[in-house]
Design brief:
This protein is mainly alpha-helical. It has 14 helices and no strands. It starts with a helix and ends with a helix.
């Protein structure tokens, strides 16, 4: 454990040094290909950093926050776009730059000057239905209960165990992203968007992936993959049907990045099941989009029907394609054992205080 802590410190010191280079040097270089060329060593470094770690949680967080999200933010930064650039505002401070680069946060749009995406999302808001908001402490409690209940998985049907894993993934991501939001908000005073918007109440796959689940990652994929591909496909298919190419492209890239994350954690050759999970959902979103366009939005199920169908499809396909690669390698068991160790450590700290 001591060696892992030393490696983690070295990894994050290299990340901080690299981001200082991006802030002080790369930002002074004209945007475009030249700045992108100057950032190539940082992309390479951030891609290999998870290999210097051995525990599931340090690997997973470093791979997600740095190897994927930070690299994508820097890719946008090379062209003066994305959360690390502010061409129409005052330049952000170094601490703001580092926090927004390292952590999965997204600042709220200016209410007076909302982005076209914000307007579009509000115009296409889904039908109202009962709310079931889970606050951050409730999610932490539920996650702790599920981790403790995992000790008795041998007495539970395997499908129920997989369902429990689905709940744990949702809760863990929201907890970690919530901590990031709290840290950045307390440090900088920035107003940030919620990590997710009750994905368990999604009324369609478009609603789930586009407006409810993991909104920070969704927004980053929208700007790095969806918009460039859509601009290109506008010339081929026209603006009405351009999403037919842009949506699958975003899902394919998401699948490949998840495959890379799994490889960092398991160190086993990919089986491509995770990629196929996202490809399948990308195809289904396109079909859903096409059906809605064909019927001019008139074909719409009641939320009491569409919500169970949507969430059920997401969960069922996750059990089929998403979880098997990490279950076969024992990565899930290792991650849960690390969670238990953290919970035990938290209990000891609470008793000391």
């Amino acid at each position: 454990m001591e060696g892992e802590i030393k490696n983690l410190v070295k990894v994050w010191l290299s990340i901080l040094a690299s981001l200082c280079y991006c802030y002080f040097l790369a930002s002074k270089i004209p945007r475009g290909k030249l700045r992108l060329f100057c950032l190539l060593p940082i992309f390479f470094l951030f891609t290999i950093l998870p290999f210097y770690l051995s525990y599931v949680f340090p690997i997973g967080l470093t791979a997600l926050f740095i190897s994927w999200l930070c690299n994508f933010k820097l890719l946008l930064f090379a062209f003066d776009k994305g959360p690390l650039s502010s061409p129409n505002l005052e330049p952000c401070s170094l601490i703001h730059f580092i926090l927004k680069a390292c952590l999965p946060v997204k600042t709220k749009e200016n209410a007076k000057y909302p982005s076209p995406q914000t307007v579009q999302t509000s115009q296409k808001s889904c039908p109202k239905h009962p709310k079931l908001p889970l606050n951050w402490p409730t999610k932490v409690l539920l996650y702790a209960i599920l981790v403790s209940a995992h000790d008795y998985k041998q007495y539970v049907h395997p499908k129920i165990v997989l369902l429990m894993y689905c709940c744990m993934v949702y809760l863990l991501i929201d907890i970690i992203f919530g901590i990031s939001n709290g840290l950045v908000s307390a440090t900088t005073g920035l107003e940030l968007e919620s990590p997710s918007d009750e994905p368990y109440l999604s009324t369609s796959l478009q609603d789930f992936w586009g407006r409810r689940w993991n909104l920070m990652v969704t927004n980053l994929l929208r700007h790095t993959i969806y918009k460039p591909v859509r601009s290109f496909s506008d010339m081929l298919l026209g603006p009405k049907w351009a999403p037919l190419l842009a949506v699958p492209a975003a899902f394919v890239v998401s699948g490949l990045m998840h495959e890379l994350l799994f490889y960092y954690v398991t160190r086993v050759s990919p089986t491509w099941e995770v990629t196929w999970y996202f490809v399948l959902h990308g195809v289904c979103v396109v079909v859903e989009f096409g059906v809605k366009r064909a019927f001019s939005g008139q074909l719409q199920l009641h939320w009491a029907v569409s919500t169970p169908l949507t969430v059920g499809f997401v969960v069922a396909t996750a059990m089929w394609l998403f979880f098997p690669p990490v279950l076969r390698t024992g990565a899930v068991e290792r991650a849960i054992e690390e969670c238990k160790a953290l919970l035990d450590y938290a209990k000891v700290l609470s008793k000391v205080k």
